[in-house]
Specification:
Inactive carboxypeptidase that may play a role in cell wall organization and biogenesis. With 490 residues, the protein is of the alpha/beta class. Helices cover 40% and strands 18% of the residues. Helix 13 links the parallel strand 13 and strand 14. The protein binds zinc ion.
């Protein structure tokens, strides 16, 4: 298919746009949240719906099926040069594609550029999401339409009074908690409920504070007896990119499942908790996450002021100090890395925290959850020529993680190096300063990124009905991982 753009079918061609009606005629579709840190500030979901008209002429196009790798380079370079939002890139095995959120003009320019620099190139460019506001409405709008703000408030209140009801409450609330995506406050109230329910197992760790003054909080699960010896810690993080909601719910789901299995007397899980500590940081980017709820669903970075008065946000996942590259792009761009390593307060706080706990809780293994593409990625992200120090081991583990997921749910997560996923073999800055490389280089013996569902048809707009299925499949992978760490194969 020679540069043919419009053979894909738009998701919705109906003349009555539901999202338009929603924005124009449902000004009372408000969901109110209290944010304790910010003094009962009210967040309205209406504000987030209000950002939809801005996306009216935007859609997501998938470039794929190229025979000449030069096409990939031209698409990436041109998309970046035009400041388009690259949703996903992949370049391994069956999955070779680049998804770009853009308008028609950008697609036209990319196609022209490919035509100019790579005559007779064969590739396909198809519409993945043809009407972005409609897709947002259908997915998040749909799931949030069922969203009951009263229920969210009740849940927070119930969790605050958890002392009496203890584990019974945890069990009964579990299903309800994972029915919908949760606001940051609710997640933190849930943390408090869990620590009250499991004082012998759980502690809330304060990692630091964000630009807008929110706490960055992690949960440590520690079931071993001795306080003296240092114990290997497995770190699982999510939500470094604000719009990747499924990564946040999945970290919480793993916490919940470990505790439930521990309670049920599951021998394996009890063994994991004797041998390993688990440190969970579900929301690495609290400001960005709150912003996706209040204002802009598709926000990715944190909310820090940059040197440009009108540009906010540093991509935390480019902000770490291992092979950091100064952001030469506009600070308005989606993957702006900042002027210096650790300029983002979140990466800075995380580094401080890990340094201060490195003797008592040395990091042993790391999994960072993202969406979307269904992939297991291993280091490095910054370079495809620099081999990780124990590639064989990493690959065995990566395929094991993928297999554990496939056995649980049948979904096939492709294994590849993070640099291939990011396109760093072509544009090295795309893989610079990542959390994965930083953790692998400085702290963890093995480190992976899991890019969760789906494979593109919903992209970042995964509805809440996927929370439990994705949680289950990733919990299986985590159990496989813990098995490997506690009883490595001979
Ligand atoms: Zn991400």
């Amino acid at each position: 298919m020679e540069g043919s753009v419009w053979h894909g079918k738009a998701r919705s061609t109906s003349s009555l746009h539901n999202w338009t009606r929603l924005v124009l005629f449902r000004p009372t579709a408000q969901v109110l949240y209290r944010d304790e840190q910010l003094g009962n500030r009210e967040f309205t979901q209406q504000a987030a719906f209000g950002s939809l008209p801005k996306l009216k002429d935007q859609f997501v196009v998938r470039f794929e099926k190229w025979e000449d790798g030069e096409v990939r380079r031209i698409v990436l370079e041109t998309a970046k040069m035009l400041g388009a939002d690259i949703w996903a890139t992949s370049n391994s095995g069956k999955s070779k594609f680049i998804d770009v959120k853009c308008d028609k003009l950008v697609v036209k320019k990319i196609v022209e550029e490919v035509g100019k620099r790579c005559k007779d190139a064969r590739y396909s460019a198809r519409l993945l999401i043809g009407d972005l506001p409609q897709a947002i409405f259908e997915t998040l709008g749909e799931s949030q339409a069922d969203f009951d703000p009263k229920e969210e408030e009740n849940m927070q209140a119930t969790m605050k009074n958890a002392e009496k009801d203890g584990r019974e409450l945890f069990r009964t609330q579990k299903d309800i908690f994972f029915k919908q995506f949760r606001h940051l406050d609710t997640i933190y109230s849930w943390f408090d409920m869990l620590t009250e329910t499991y004082p012998d197992l759980l502690t809330v760790e304060w990692i630091g504070q964000t630009y807008e003054g929110r706490d960055i909080r992690a949960l440590r699960i520690s079931g071993h007896k001795s306080d003296n010896e240092s114990i290997r810690t497995v770190v699982i993080t999510g939500g470094i990119h604000a719009r990747e909601w499924i990564s946040i719910s999945t970290v919480c789901y793993i916490v919940s499942s470990l505790l439930a299995d521990y309670d049920a007397g599951n021998k394996k899980v009890r063994h994991y908790l004797e041998e390993l500590d688990f440190l969970f940081l579900p929301v690495m980017n609290p400001d960005g996450y709150a912003y996706t709820w209040s204002t802009e669903w598709l926000w990715r970075k944190n909310r820090q002021q940059t040197y440009h008065p009108r540009c906010f946000g540093i991509d935390i996942d480019h902000s770490f100090n291992f092979h950091f590259e100064r952001g030469l792009d506009s600070p308005c761009s989606e993957d702006y890395s900042g002027q210096d390593a650790f300029e983002s307060l979140e990466s800075y706080a995380w580094d401080n925290y890990l340094n201060s706990t490195r003797h008592s809780h040395p990091i042993y293994a790391y999994i960072d959850l993202h969406s979307y593409a269904e992939e297991v990625l291993y280091p490095y992200a910054y370079s495809c020529t620099e081999m990780p120090r124990d590639e064989e081991n990493l690959l065995e583990l990566a395929y094991g993680l993928s297999q554990a997921i496939r056995l649980r749910s049948g979904v096939n997560y492709e294994v590849m190096s993070a640099c291939e996923d990011r396109g760093a073999d072509l544009l090295p800055e795309m893989g610079a300063g990542s959390a994965l490389d930083y953790m692998y280089h400085n702290k963890a013996y093995s480190a992976f990124v899991l890019k969760l569902r789906d494979s593109g048809s919903r992209g970042f707009l995964l509805p809440s009905k996927f929370i439990v299925p994705v949680g289950r499949e990733v919990y299986s992978a985590v159990k496989y991982f813990a098995d490997f760490l506690t009883e490595p194969p001979a």
